[in-house]
From TrEMBL:
Name of the molecule in the record: Probable malate:quinone oxidoreductase
Catalyzed chemical reaction(s): (S)-malate + a quinone = a quinol + oxaloacetate
Family to which the UniProt record says this protein belongs: Belongs to the MQO family.
GO molecular function, one term: L-malate dehydrogenase (quinone) activity
Length: 506
């Protein structure tokens, strides 16, 4: 049946959602093939307003320097650093791509989105101190973590993070690691700058206030994408050879609308986030680090506490959290019907089984929802003993949707990372999940391009461009110290990275 809905011009690529993932993929594809036409559809009135926004995410350049959940302890007491190595290398690839854009285009829109902020892990208790000591020893054997410092000397820790040590029980056993190469990233600023570059290119159109309502796979492999203008109410269609769903928490419902077999069995579990935001400039000035702790026994990875220095729009900020909550919304600006509407015959069993096997998460969320201001202050005082309630206000962060998928052994599993779901013919792909997504966007999109555009990716022209955008592609940086040093020197110079002291935030 022929559609009577008005049509927009056909396009090579449709990007759904104006976040960091779509911006990265769009620029990458235009670099690989400048002739491609790209249409971007975003339901809000500005890019990067959901998960990519600076106030909706932690802003940590995730490189595994301080995130203890990336280095689990094995049953035999040894430390598994495989995930940490992978994430550290992925973040180096992201910095290389950002440096490529900065050097090539030299535009103000993507300046000053990244700053050096020391990444620290801080632990309490003898068992945790021993864990941190072993973690440090294992990581510093590799090139990516050279220079990481460990100390259990209270005076040295106090010189690093005075607010964390002041008022602390002198008998408490503590330790910390510090990596001065850690970064803070304003992903909102970066994303908007990338879309500025993308819109300047011929063949790229951006449609704000447009919500995708339907996806139809045509017989020739192309897609019919039906959207609604949320201002006028008008519905329009466009035809595309490739569709990417990068709508954050909104990706799952759109993936379900595609009806591809690969989407069967996927579900989502939404978790809302909150921060305590410091409003006392004197307190903010006395802290200059991202200090990550260890999640309590039985708590999920998302509960890892951090006392977090941010630089947002040129101003130093201080946050503590996260405090979790439960909402059935999949987006901060979404609908309370998002979760029930996502439940389908194919994902009911995985969602039930994942829920039964993650009762600790349910318990944790119930506890978090019931927290009083005094409870939140008590949590803060574990990391900042002399914190005063009047110096902090509660702020709402972004909405996460954790991936639930089928599992042959368990029926369904809850994933805490990111996952790309791709159709067998490579004509549509969706990104699901949460942290450390933004920090690893470049490696995720490189993999997606190679999977969905296999013939083009194998050509000498695309191979050369891949290595121009990410020079270390194909190398294992953890084993190549000279290349790590050369790469970090180059990217930090191009990106204009300066120390916290030079920024006046020491």
């Amino acid at each position: 049946m022929t559609s009577t809905t008005p049509s927009l011009p056909a396009t090579d690529v449709v990007l759904i959602g104006a976040g960091i993932m779509s911006a990265t993929l769009g620029l990458m594809l235009k670099e690989l093939d400048p002739t491609l036409t790209i249409s971007i559809f975003e339901r809000l009135d500005v890019a990067a307003a959901e998960s990519s926004d600076a106030w909706n995410n932690a802003g940590t350049g995730h490189s595994a320097f301080c995130e203890l959940n990336y280095t689990p302890e094995r049953p035999d007491g040894s430390i598994d650093i495989s995930k940490a190595l992978k994430i550290a290398e992925q973040f180096e690839q992201s910095k290389q791509f950002w440096a490529f854009l900065t050097e090539k285009y030299d535009v103000k829109e993507i300046e000053r989105f990244i700053n050096y902020i020391p990444h620290m892990s801080f632990v309490m208790g003898r068992e945790n101190v021993e864990f941190l000591r072993k973690r440090h020893a294992a990581l510093t054997q590799t090139a990516l973590f050279k220079g990481m410092k460990f100390t259990d000397d209270r005076a040295e820790i106090e010189s690093w993070i005075p607010l964390v040590m002041e008022g602390r029980d002198p008998e408490q056993t503590v330790a910390a690691t510090r990596m001065d190469l850690g970064t803070d990233v304003n992903f909102g600023s970066l994303t908007r700058g990338m879309f500025y570059l993308l819109q300047e290119k011929p063949g790229v159109t951006m449609h704000f206030h447009h919500e995708v309502e339907k996806l139809h796979h045509n017989a020739d492999g192309s897609w019919r994408v039906k959207t609604k203008n949320l201002e006028s109410g008008q519905e329009v269609e466009t035809q595309a050879r490739f569709v990417f769903i990068g709508a954050g928490g909104g990706s799952l419902p759109l993936l379900e609308k595609s009806h591809i077999p690969e989407a069967d069995g996927y579900g989502g579990f939404p978790v809302s986030g909150q921060w305590l935001r410091c409003v006392n400039p004197a307190v903010i000035e006395r802290h200059a680090a991202k200090v990550y702790g260890k999640a309590s026994v039985g708590s999920p990875p998302m509960s890892v506490p951090h006392l977090d220095t941010r630089v947002i729009d040129g101003e130093k900020q201080l946050l503590f959290g996260p405090y979790a909550g439960f909402s059935t919304k999949f987006l901060k600006t979404g609908s309370y019907f998002d979760l029930p509407a996502s439940i389908q015959f194919g994902n009911v069993k995985p969602m039930i089984m994942a829920g039964l096997k993650n009762l600790s998460l349910t318990k944790y969320l119930i506890q978090q929802v019931r927290q009083s201001p005094d409870d939140r202050l008590a949590a803060l005082r574990e990391y900042m003993p002399e914190a005063q309630a009047q110096d902090w206000e509660l702020a709402i962060a972004g909405q996460r949707v954790q991936v639930i998928k089928k599992d042959k052994k368990q029926g369904g599993v809850l994933e805490f990372g990111t996952e790309v779901v791709t159709a067998a013919d490579g004509t549509i792909a969706a990104l699901l999940g949460a942290s450390p997504g933004a920090s690893t966007a470049v490696s995720i999109m490189l993999h997606l391009v190679q999977k969905c555009f296999p013939q083009q990716s194998a050509t000498p022209e695309w191979q050369a461009k891949f290595h121009e955008m990410v020079p270390t592609l194909g190398h294992t940086l953890a084993d190549e110290p000279e290349l790590v040093n050369k790469t970090r020197t180059r990217t930090s110079t191009i990106l204009g990275l300066v120390t916290p002291a030079e920024l006046g935030v020491s």
